[in-house]
Fold each of these.
Amino acid sequence: MIAITVNGREVQVAPGTSVAAALLMAGEPSRLSVRGAPRAPLCGMGICMECRATVNGVLHQRTCQLLCAAGMEVVTG
Amino acid sequence: MSARVDVLVVGAGPGGMAAATVAAEAGRRVCLVDGGTAPGGQIWRGYSTPSASRSPHGREFVRWSERLQRSGCAVWQGWQVVDHPAEGVLRVERDGECRDVGYERLILATGARERFLPFPGWTLPGVMGAGGVQALMKAGLEARGRRVVVAGSGPLLLAVAAGLHDAGATVAGIYEQAAAGRLARFALRMLRHPGKLAEGAGYRLKTRKAAYRTGAWVVRAEGKDRVERVTVTDGRREWQVECDWLACGFHLVPNLELPLLLGCSVAGGYVAVDALQQSSVANVACVGELTGIGGLEKALAEGQIAGWAAAGREAQARAMTAEAGRGRRFGAELEAAFALREELRTLADAETVVCRCEDVPYGALAGKVGWREAKLHTRCGMGACQGRVCGAVTEFLFGWDAKSGRPPIYPALMSTMAEGAEETKAAAQRR
Ligand SMILES: Cc1cc2nc3c(=O)[nH]c(=O)nc-3n(C[C@H](O)[C@H](O)[C@H](O)COP(=O)(O)OP(=O)(O)OC[C@H]3O[C@@H](n4cnc5c(N)ncnc54)[C@H](O)[C@@H]3O)c2cc1C
Ligand code: FES
């Protein structure tokens, strides 16, 4: 298993898990819409941009196109 | 220029893999670029793993990927094509690094995406695409113990429901908007494609405990912070189904951004090509879902045709055209069987978000004359997805032509667009 943190909380996932899948399993929405509504992954294939979150300090990463790596820090909202 | 090849292929789904393999085997210098994490495209997503590669589809993937490796083709995985900066050149980007690739012949195989349609509650967390759930499960999403409604339209629904069942989820119902009569006619025609019929029947057998309703669709999703229940209708009555996830997609639409950027003519929603997959632009061929949604066999046949043609082997290319034709006819039958019903145009109410990136509601768009005016006045389609989701929505709801091929076709770094390959490379070296 690989440990990452989501908003500071530790989450364990199997190797090969995308960050978007990890967020869904952790029950965390990925971003807030321009009017402040929670959003979560929709397309799973890199086109809708709903899965964007901050990963290791880099803003607006498409988390469905990014695999979890040990120690990764993901911040949503 | 970072590289120069005879044949550049974009997209490593079955269409692009077949095209690149065949052209390289014929002795051409070939480069295959793909923006995903592994080759395979949509249908072969996640097939690089040992367990998946043992399924029948998986074995076919392994055959093609081994052939591709042996062919001598250079495979650039994780590189997204973002621009066409000059004649005979494409610009690609990965993790902030950018390269320009020059080519004599270009083969585009950028595939398709799901069509989504708006209804109240479709932006709630837990509402995902049908293919979206499939893709996320292949990327580690665990479905065990979840209650999932599968809805929308297309042959993908049964495959997704079967996948959910295998993963230990409870399929709380499958709702296909197409009417039973159309589907029965489609099934009869499928007698000529026994393999496909058997595949569909196998999926249904797995999910036999779940209700499968044709002529039924989701009108609303509700829940506090995420979807908790959906309302379904058959046009006469409505009923509610509790669920943790809604997997909902309405068949597929082609990824036309790159062909449009290159100037390829589009007719009837797809790139127009001749028998050798040649588009209206002299050295650009298009294959697979770009020329009509038709699935695996069509993509493989068209890919080989384009690959042979790019290598100057016209006889071999012509030998595959009958098979491609069969694939195209299957695609046309799919499109007729799963045509979208009128009622789906009326699901959104004035507050329902249509453009998810910019939160533009239906009420702000109704009455606008077209896509351009809507973009200018409401920012619809101006957000991060560049209209990839709401463009197809407004085409269906309002009949607008929302297809676009303006650079960058994917969100790219400013430096990539402004300076280009040589400069970013130099900057990277300075760092
Ligand atoms: C979500 C989804 C799920 C599907 N599931 C199934 C299924 O279970 N069974 C089935 O029979 N069919 C399925 N299909 C249908 C599928 O489209 C075809 O079966 C087949 O994969 C089409 O092959 P293709 O080569 O045309 O394109 P695809 O397989 O779609 O491959 C296109 C490739 O191009 C790449 N690409 C696109 N744009 C760029 C760019 N700008 N730069 C770099 N790379 C780019 C993509 O990353 C992708 O890898 C699915 C389709 C979708 C959209
Ligand atoms: S889930 Fe759509 S882009 Fe990631």
Amino acid sequence: MPLARSPVEHELVRAGASFEVRDGWNVATRFGAVADEVQAARCGVAISDRSWLATIEVQAAAQHIATLAGGPLQLGRARRDGDGCWWCPLTARRLLVVAPPSRVAALHDRLEEAAGALDFASVVDVSAGMAAVLVVGPRARDLLATLTALDLRAREAPVGALLPGSVARVPAVVLHERDSGFLVLFGAAQAEYVWTVMADAGEPLSAVFAGSDAIEALDA
Amino acid sequence: MTRLEPQPGERIDRRSPLRFSFDGERVEGFEGDTIASALFAGGRRVFSRSFKYHRPRGLLCCSGACANCLVAVDGRPGVRACTEPLRSGMAVEHLNAWPSLERDVMRAVDKVGGPFTPPGFYYKTMIRPRRLWPLFEWGLRRIAGLGKLTRRDEREWRTSYRRRHADVLVIGGGLAGLSAAVAAAELGADVVLVDDGAEAGGRLLHEGSHERARSLASAARGHGVEILTGASALGYYDGLVPVRRGGVLHQIRARAHVAATGTIDQPLVFAGNDLPGVMTSDGALRLTALYGVRPGSRAVVATTGDRGLRAALALHAAGVPIALVVDERSEPVTALADSLAEHGIEVMTGAMVVGACGDDAVQRVTVARVADRGGERVVHCDLLVVSGGSAPATSLLAQAGTAMAFEPHSGQFLPGETPAHVQAAGELAGIDGDEAIELSGALAGARAAIAAGAGEDEALHSRIAGEQTELDRMLARPATPAVTPTFCGAAADGKAFVCLCEDVTDKDIAYSVAEGYDSIELSKRYTTVTMGPCQGRMCQLAAIRAVARQTGVDAPAVGQTTARPPWTPVAMGVLAGRPFEPAKRSSIHARHRALGANVMWAGDWRRPYDYGDPALEVRAVHDAAGIIDLSSLGKLLVRGPQAGQLLDRLYPNRLSNLKVGRLRYGVLNSDAGRIMDDGTVFGLDEDSFYVTTTSSGAGAVEEWFSWWMADWDLDAHITDLTQTLAAVNVAGPRARAILQRLTDMDCSPDAFGYLDGRQAHVAGIPALVLRIGFVGELGYEIHAPAAHGQALWDAIAQAGAQDAIRPFGLEAQRVLRLQKGHVIVGQDTDGESNAYSASMGWIVKLDKEEDFVGRWALELAAERAHAETLVGFRMSNGAVPHEGAAVVVDGAPVGRVTSARHSERLGHAIGLAWVPTALRDAGSQIAIVDEGRHYSAEVVRGAFYDPDNERQRG
Ligand code: FES
Ligand code: FES
């Protein structure tokens, strides 16, 4: 099968990204020195394309969502499991699972199997339809404040907070994924627009683009 | 130079000179100066020309509260020189004067034009002759307005929004505001304080308490308060307060608000009260204390209260000679009068200014006794400091829903009960004296923090109660009653301005009342008093008093004008913020760009209009193969045990019996039987259907499905796959061969017939292939994950290269579909069209057992003749009418053209049009009028091209 490509790949190319194939995706790993990208993510703000993250939509009766998620979920809060998957309840009957691509096949199968045991539930891989951008760093909130009216203050939206709303006037879901790191999920068709707007909003803040290597270094 | 010796607490850094230009001439100032302080220090006294009479105007308030110092900075008009910080190299220019600020030809209006330009003259003049309207408009446009915008490309200006949530927003950074911020933050609240000054501190900064101001500000910062200076709150919108700061509009949403906007020093009304050199006491003190600038070389101070006396003392201390103080009160009861006497400053009590004169600036002032206007005295001076009392800045509080009430003792309109979550503090709330102001601020801050959810306990409540008692005790002290300034009557030779922004004189108010506009709101509309750039800050009180005088009622009965946002003028660009143009693009968009596509908006998508030559693209589809990106099609996955039932209830035809692997066309109708959208439905498995919709209808259809599904409580799920799946259509006689090269699936007509669908790998990509087409040739729609969209496109282009496959855009598609007579919902139909009138009655199955949306309306439509019918037409000559051209009968419009194109393949122009039903039959002649030209056309029923669908089904 040909490589899966991010909806902003040509923007990443234009910005000088280097790519590597990871789990079937052409992933932007770096734009320059990884250390600089890490530094920006630690001290300023960095923007990283994460559209290669898998997203699985689960729909079921409210009482079954907890069964499929392996535990109760609370609206407005996402839960991270040991495999690095985020379980994001969008409504009482709709759930989005954001997962590393390496986990998606097993996860999909497990969910399908669990769904099969219920009266009726549906599990659909919508990975290609969702773009994801991580805005990370102490100034991430400043950048996002120019694009969204969501209240991202640490006290109101601690790590794990899940906020559906509008970012740059497109429907989006913001997940406070790590300390001062916000994963913005939105429709893939709007990815080029959102990416350009974010890059522009980041300019006065000296935001840098970060590849997946820098984000992995942050995780390490 | 008129710089004073360094002043304690001044804001300028005398070691850092800055150079800039005013009207092209080089001027020097210091770091920390405003444009106005630097220009004033350099000797400039005239800063602007007034709006109507073009009278010279100088610095009045020095705090951004009037409109006397409006200039253009680097081509941007409407900047207040007295608050705009000086930057090196800035190019400052005057507004509203020609050929120069000093000599302005429009000044003639002041000298001779007065009688011709009374209030509301524009309602009464320039009405006849009507043919001169364009000339009047041209003239008025040239004369009116303050400043001109530069060309668009010369005023690139980055503006943006910043959203800030907070627990408490404090508006105003004076003593009360800073105390409120500290108190709220001490209770753990997340506090933002906004102040329009260059530095927080308010009056304290220029009234000798700068150290106190700075220590309070630093305490606030220490408690984590975010202080935004140079930031003007524009209004109050249900808790949202937009705050302009430079090019950024801060949208601050706080749980609780403290208004500590203080008071505005009011000018006095007398003949010549607008001359440069007339300055409010606050303005004179600011220039002196903050910028070390001598506001005049010999001053007269005219006051109605202690504020003026305090200013006289401070100016004297700074080295400004005070020639005379006139106090309207017959006996000032304060110790300030004694201090003035001790310093040898003459105070004339029970007296007032009756006029100021001078050539373009104050040179002498005439004072007289209040009681009998006797004892006139002329005093030579170049500075007249006026203090006509203070007006609480209540506008934002009023917008928040607080009613104001007149308080006779202070002579002010003061806030009554504030809404929950809104506190008023300090001078705004009528509180006088630093100690009481500070305490009122702290109380307001604590209450706001509690309202915002800060933890409260017994101890806190008792502390607040104790502080309130203390404040009440302070306020119980007798205060000196305020004196309402006496109006001396305009001298015959001078105008006495009530409203400087709009050049409205006391006579103008009298005129408006005489004309019947005898309430403050009517007079406001007629004279435009209070409607200038200062939004009534400097004139509301004077206007109320003037109306009261003319109508014989008292000020409280006159009341205030309505406070509306914006409280401070703001550039439209700042309100607009950064321009956003959300666009959807398919995953193949980069390839289209690389292929040189001309891109157009199609709904909220950016799509290729053509790739350079639409005619060539049409030919390729007819003769070989073409490929078009259809990713924008709406795509819904409908799954569940009752998915078929759901579709049966939504569509007028039967869908639950759709076989797996088969495709059917469907039209969605509203409850009223009107056409909403169309598309196809494909049977994926027993319980799953893949539904496509129009590009623009995807969102609405998904909502429509979900809404009905919830209403009927059906067991089905809908997943919107519009952005998840890319889709391309390969069409043309070579389409099958091209597809076959990319898949193992048998593409032969027998194995994969018309309206069949298959799940297969195409170019190694898992895909859903549907044998259908909109363009009238053999074709396949291939739907695949968007992440592989471009790979799919490239593979097809490569596989079709030997067949000369071409990409085609929307224009070619429109020609091709028109040849087939295919309707585009929303273009050929409108909100009134139903399936019968749109010649698609065949799709409605009224014999269907299930009820369906719109059935009742469609049954009626089937029984009744419809007035109009959508038909095809062929033009008699080669003309192509515009979409929207009228179909006429006997000269009267009876229908319209919805689509028209020239068809190269058919050799003539064709189209679709709504015509009277009597003309719907094939061969009927219709007349079309398009932009004044008359054409004839013949009605055609069915497809123009390949009417038996042989090519498509082949
Ligand atoms: S003098 Fe500048 S606004 Fe009043
Ligand atoms: S003085 Fe500004 S609006 Fe009247």
Amino acid sequence: MENILEYLKEERAQAWRDELRKKIKSKDRTAIVRVKMHEQDHDIRSRNNLEVNLGLKKEEAVIEAQRCLDCVTPTCIKGCPVNINIPKFVKKIEKEDFLGAAKVLKETNSLPAVCGRVCPQEKQCEQECFYTQKLKLAPVAIGYLERFAADFERESGMSSTPDVAENNGIKVASIGSGPAALAWASDMARFGYKVTVFEALHEIGGVLKYGIPEFRLPNKIVDFEIDNMKKMGIEFRTNFIVGKTMTIDDLREAGYKAFFVGSGAGLPRFMNIPGENAIGVFSANEYLTRINLMNAAKINFDTPVLSGLNVAIIGGGNTAMDSVRTAKRLGAEHAMIIYRRSEEEMPARIEEVKHAKEEGIEFLNLNNPVEYKFDKNGKVTSMILQKMVLGEPDASGRRSPVPLENSEYEIPVDTVVVAVGTSPNPLIPASVSGLKTTRWGTIVVNEDMQSSIEDIYAGGDIVRGGATVILAMGDGRTAAAAMHKNLAKKLLTK
Amino acid sequence: MNKIVEKVIFSENVTKFVVEAPEIARSRKAGHFVIIRLDESGERVPLTIAGSDPEKGTITLVVQRVGVTSAKLLEKNVGDVIKDVAGPLGTATHIAKVGTVLAAGGGVGVAPLLPIVEEFKKAGNRVLTVIAARNKNLIILEEEMRRYSDELIIMTDDGSYGQKGLVTHGMESFINKEKISEAIVIGPAIMMKYAALTTKKYGIPTQASLNTIMVDGTGMCGACRVTVGGKTKFVCVDGPEFDAHQVDFDEMLLKLNAYKTEEKEAYERYLKSKN
Ligand SMILES: Cc1cc2nc3c(=O)[nH]c(=O)nc-3n(C[C@H](O)[C@H](O)[C@H](O)COP(=O)(O)OP(=O)(O)OC[C@H]3O[C@@H](n4cnc5c(N)ncnc54)[C@H](O)[C@@H]3O)c2cc1C
Ligand code: FES
């Protein structure tokens, strides 16, 4: 930590930063109003699948960057799980060196265009911003600026592939290709390893591809980063289920020296209430996968999806918001969130809740399903809901919902999407003997993200349960650094 | 990309494909399946691995025409490729020496049954097999089945081959003759339902291999969930084989029809696109 602070101080002391600070008075900086994101009109966007947020214009980004006071102690960095040098990249934007800003982002974050779109900034960097903490004003729009710089670089056609060290011939592999594995892979490639990414599905990207919808994170943005990684020499193997197609033992025999497990929290949870197996009741994973991965809503694709007029989504997280807004886009007249607590406790990003409301999503908060009814063909027709009230705070610190006696009522539904969370993917823990897991099925790791087996590291949702893209990436980077150190000690000094 | 290296047409609607998939060929066991996707716009569908040749690096799939994907696949020829083949998936069949095994296969279910019959035989069991279909043309893999079965009965609905009657008749004629230690049934859901009722009557432990709708095949989506003994199970990871006496076949039958309308429309679109 000492080193980092020292480093930040040195960086801040550079002449160009000093000059910028002097150019505008702090009081003029704080007088600037936070920029507004350009968005597609809610009436139009709820009928298409295009991205809702349209990004900032150059001039807007520069003005927003001027708001940043370039604090002596930049608390925002503390709020960032991968410690992006936030003031530095923001000041590069103020200086109109947009490519330079992107470069700063990439020092610590291999997928800034993704994070600029999906990170819960309001709980991270922007929460810790001086504006939020001390001035009680809207924080610098760090997330928008991150997105701006990353998009600028991509669209400029001058995006640079990171330099990679000379190939050291050592083979390493990741299991999964979500953000944790991608972050790990790009660092390992930079260190000079021969990296293979094994993915069970036919697409690379994990949740970024099959879960998060196009209107929030277009696939082409993820694909751009993956193409870059291919240029760095990383090999991607799709349709390869580690533990099934080949086991970790087989891969060791094939010469792989270390592994990073980033297999995610893929297993959908259900509530085990009557009627939950009826036709028309999906897990959010199935619903989103059919649409995002299999393109079910498009006419020339073979995968079907049932999505009706009265669609109820159970849950209040990002997955629930993504599902309900998808249902709206597929033509639902009533696209409803059924959430057992109140809006205040919702784990979804604030922007998602705001967008959902603008798009006409109905929120049935403090409601919980207790049963689904279905017709003679087994197709869901209605659901019984029970009203809830908030009681004492539970272990998570949120006030826990308590059912209200005799409050049951019935509403018609033809599609139900259960988005009440996922459990760790059991495939790897089940196929590797001796791998220590918790009783929730997550892999146990030390601070280096190393598991109970020396050559196996792990990170992301398989370690944390459902978490976030940026935490997953942070894990991947920590694991890469530690793995490199270990392998270098063992193999490179021989 | 997996290349088709051999194609054998069993009947108008059933074809055997041998496909390159070296890693899967080495790791698969009886009872495993693969998920395939024909092309960029294709759906993901499960197909049981009917056999493999680890040396040549190939697996065998037996495909029956049911919808768009199978129809498109049947048109493929040697040298063509299948875009994605992922596997082997599911839990392998538990093979042990148990005594006498009754194996019953209906329609295209005979294909996934073949490797299981082979393994039970190799494990030292006496294997009694019934294969059934609507008519003679739909009976497949008779020779191969005979090789690994101590006795084999063929049943056809119309009596055009073997004995006339349902698969359950064939099963009962074995059951009435000798003591059966264990049974395995694979075929259309409705056939498995009645086959399971038959063995239940005689108290014979029975496994059924379920063929639900799937998407990923890795336990990620829950499209394949069924009720077994009152509990929800995922066929792709917990199965595909389950205690046949515990499976809620009625629920499964309804669920198999979930996309009937969409599938029919897609099939009609497909036929139109060909003309
Ligand atoms: C709908 C939805 C919306 C979300 N929205 C946000 C958001 O706005 N912001 C945010 O920060 N987070 C969000 N999250 C959470 C975030 O996506 C996850 O925390 C993150 O993707 C976890 O990354 P990961 O690398 O651990 O795993 P994943 O992204 O889950 O990737 C794991 C990959 O591993 C593969 N795999 C599993 N087992 C094997 C195996 N044995 N062999 C080979 N491959 C295997 C899987 O197929 C999968 O592709 C959202 C999640 C969902 C589902
Ligand atoms: S097919 Fe998706 S969980 Fe079984």
Amino acid sequence: MYRGREGQWAFVLHRLSGVALALYLLLHVLDISLVMYGPEGPFNAFLAFYHQWPFRVGLLMVIVAVIYHAFNGLRIIIMDFTDWGVKVQGPLWYGVLAVTAVIGIPVLWKILPEIFGGA
Amino acid sequence: MQVNVKIKRFNPEADKRPYWAEYQLEARPTDRVLDVLNEIKWEMDGSLSYRRSCAHGICGSDAMLINGVNRLACKILVKDLGADIRVEPIRGLTVQKDLIVDMEPFFDAYKAVLPFFINDDPAPAAERYQSPEDREIFDDTTKCILCAACTTSCPVFWTNGRYLGPAAIVNAHRFIFDSRDQGADERLQVLNQPNGLWRCRTAYNCTEACPRDIPITKVIEEVKRELLWRRA
Ligand code: FES
């Protein structure tokens, strides 16, 4: 493992969350589109399948990934379009992590009990 | 002090794959890793192969992956690493033997950006004047020693060896922002290729690795903006 610093991990997380979201979006569009086969079609069966807890946990990760990817995207825009962004990229990344936590934790707080409460 | 040195070795004539060789020896805290390698080669195992020339951080021969980070063996001291030292060849280039890699792809990328002065105007009688302010703009990028520590620390380069890489962009920057030079368009055209400038994903490993303290990511971003605004 190369011992890179903030920038390397920001990049790795951005890439992982990006690829995960792209795959998720594909899946999402595919199974939402099943709705066109009507109520008797496969849509409801798929939906029930996705209500199992591993997929729900996956959905939580999607939420966290969206938050991280969005805010790190802003960090990248700042680095790309200002001449000071590069200098503060490290602190900016900690800011991105903090914002991800600040928004992500209440969301988990709200949704986790629903998942394991079986609702 | 007693140091424990692990070196990733590979002899294409004898080994199927690289292996870790271990050496225990005495070293002074103020010794450089290059001194330690020399001690091993001269006193313990003459078959150990690596490049070095100046031993003073200026020829760019001895970039290595040392304790997980790219550095020059002749600039990093034992006391900054501790008793356990791990040395590997830089990544993304083919290992020829032990710590020696094939640098040709690296130099090909360097040559691709036309790293030389271009100006076809007849030379003026005295000099091609440049103000100190204009000279300052590309001062950082005149310092590159082509050691490849940056390019081979780049995660994008590890997975795509055809990416021109930070060193080539640094040397393009050196001339693109030189007020006396007229080749900027040609260079930017090269950098605008699919494996050029836009492959940079700002992972900053290059900036951390540069033994000359060139703010590499900063200058890459400057070239990106230059290309963007020129096209716009
Ligand atoms: S030996 Fe010349 S840079 Fe290290």
